[in-house]
Amino acid sequence: MIPLQWYLWLSAAMFAIGIAGFLIRRNIIIMFMSIELMLNAANISLVSFGHHLQDMRGQILVFFIIAVAAAEAAIGLAIIIALFRNRTTTYIDEVNEMKG
Amino acid sequence: MDNYLLIPFLPLTAFLINIFFGKTFLRDKAHWVSILAVFGSWVVSVMTVAEVLQGRTVNKDLYAWISSGGFMVSVGFLIDQLTAVMLVVVTTCSTLIHIYSAGYMHGDKGYYRFFAYLSLFTFSMLMLVMANNFLQLYFGWEAVGLCSYFLIGFWYEKKSASDAGKKAFIVNRFGDFGFGIGVIMIFLSLGTLHYAPVFKGIGSLVGQTVNIHLLGVQVDLITFIALLLFCGAVGKSAQLPLHVWLPDAMEGPTPVSALIHAATMVTAGVFMVARCNPIFSLSPLAMSVVAVIGAVTALFAATIALVQNDIKRIIAYSTVSQLGYMFLACGVGAYTAGIFHLYTHAFFKALLFLCAGSVMHAMAGELDLQKMGGLKKYMPWTYRTMLIASLSIAGIPGLAGFFSKDEILWLAFSGSSPVGKFVWAIGTFVAFLTAFYSFRLIFLTFHGKFRGTHEQEHHLHESPKVMTIPLMLLCVGAIASGWVGIPHLLGGGAHFTEFMKPVLGHLEGEGTHGDEWMVMAISVFAGLSGIGLAAFVYLRESNLADRAASQFAFVHKILWNKYYVDEFYSAIIVKPTFWIAKNVIVRVTDGKIIEGIVNGVPALIGKVSEVLRKVQTGRVQEYASIMAIGTFILIALALFW
Question: Which end of chain A has the least Cβ crowding within 10 Å, N or C?
Fold first, then answer.
């Protein structure tokens, strides 16, 4: 039996990697992958709590997150493709015109 | 009787169909929807009236419209004898005028719009007459005013038409303001707006007074309410001093003038006063005011009509004058006679207008009597029907107008009203004037030689069947509609009076048969002499009119300029309003206050954002790191604090 803490450490580690990747990397595709990583970190902790508390709601919520993540992935990738077609770049420092 | 709801809602359906699909699908077929709907509503009305004739009435609340604390109003329908008469008048005139319009408006680019509004008007008018409470009455009241505005300004590209529409709407505001306060006063004093409890409870208000702090006077509560309600009637029915909008309303298409500004909407004021007869009857002062305003308006409008040259305006002033008669009748307590005149008037006045429309159709829109003449041989049917309508309005025995006018004059003469004799004298004199100007119109239009251009003469033709057949049908009404109220004196049964008794009560004239014969003889003599004088002036001595006009140049000028009422209002109301608008509203309120705020707020925001915008770098990761740091701080606070 693996204790709950281990799952939570895993989840926290994944989340931290996700945040770090999102903040540090400049390639938009990598950033996008980091976001997915953070979402899945949340999923892990939800499932593990669900298991720990013997409550199905944790897992149900995960299904929603997966569905949302799928939709988000579709839209996000579409945006990236549109961006690349217009600017021929995936580096966000080159697309910083949205400023005041 | 259960399907009475169809009566107002069929025209409403036609309106919705026409307004949504008229432009794209129906186009020049738009009239079918409206005509069928209004005809259907006529059929149901006739069935309903047949049941009312057997003594069955309806007073039913459909659903609660507003319910707020002690304020309860339902959408409800009341069908009694008074409503029944109005249903006949409204749906009959509306159906015939819808049919006529199919010919008259043919080819107009707003064809579907015209029929949509006409149906909406019919719906509103029916809601007005079928209401069982004051708020629904008020709804119908404003809705018909709105339709009137739409239809007067139907040809809105024409400046005079859109101006006339605005004028009608604004002048009506003055009356409706009073009417609205009257309704509120009723609610405040009786706690309800439904007819039945109001009319039952109004007696308990006798002797109560109300303080008007503004003027520092105390007035009788019932008189106050009655006069406020009458304010609304004065506006809607174009009585002095708010009559100015009706002649201008003739800028609208002629079928509109016939339906709205002659037969139905403008009679709403008379209907309302008759409906509120339990209120008015308790206030002798208000009654006398109604009678005198009616009589004076009748005289005033009739004298103006004597000298005008615009064919539609003459008929419009004639309408104002006849409405004055109806108020005169209500004011002396003869509500039945007033409603009777409303009912006969609807037929012959709608007919007069439609005939005028037919003449305009032939004359390519020409309105000036001085450019017509001799149209008799070109348009025989228009001539015949218009002649009958004029005979009817002049009160020639046997025709509709005779019976109703005679009833009014007799009851004014013999009733117990303190102003009865006075208004009777005016009424009789107006009967003479009415006959004179009506036949002046006939003689100048149809007799003599044509005075227009050759081009116009070449164009002259009788109107198509779709227009002349409604004329003939209305003509039947102008002849026969009065036969339901033949007085006992002439061997009739006075069925109309009997029929209306449950709602309007009964006023018995005091006098011998000899008196009654005398009143009748005088009014018939007045009518005949009016016709005779018109024939003498305009057929025999054709330059007599001009000589009289130059002889009495001063009087003629006053009448020609309609007593300068418009100029007077322009000087005391319109110009000061414009002055205030220009110097106070535009310069101070708008220029300083509103623009100050409107421009000041964005200027402030601009300054603040000047500072804030430096934070917005456009780099996603900077935003994300701020967010992440913020989150860490929050979590840290939650954990360790």
Answer: N
β-partners of residue B77 are B60, B131
Q: Are B123 and B155 in contact (CB under 8 A)?
A: no
Predicted-complex ipTM score: 0.80
Put simply, the chain B residues between 596 and 635 with a CB less than 8 A from any chain A CB are 609, 612-621, 624-625, 628
DSSP 8-state class, residue B154 = S
Q: Where are the extended beta strands (E) located within B45-162?
A: 58-68, 71-79
Q: Report pLDDT digits (tens) over B440-495.
A: 999 888 888 888 788 777 888 888 888 888 889 989 988 888 888 888 877 777 78
Q: Which residues pair with B72 in a beta bridge?
A: B67
B612: nearest CA in chain A?
A100
Tell me if residue B358 falls in helix, strand or coil.
Answer: helix
pTM of whole model > 0.90? no
Phi/psi-derived region of residue B602, left when phi > 0, alpha when psi is between -120 and 50, beta in every other case: alpha
- The β-bridge relationship of strands B58-68 and B71-79 is antiparallel
d(CA B220, CA B223): 5
Q: B195, B132 in Cβ contact below 8 A? A: yes
Mutate to test the interface with A, among B605, B611, B621, B639 (most CBs of A within 10 A): B621
User: What separation, in Å, do the N-terminal and C-terminal C-alpha atoms of chain B show?
Assistant: 78
Residue B428: how many CB atoms within 10 A of its CB?
19
* Residue type (1 letter), B399: L
Q: For residues A49 and B450, what is the distance between their CA atoms, to the nearest angstrom?
A: 103
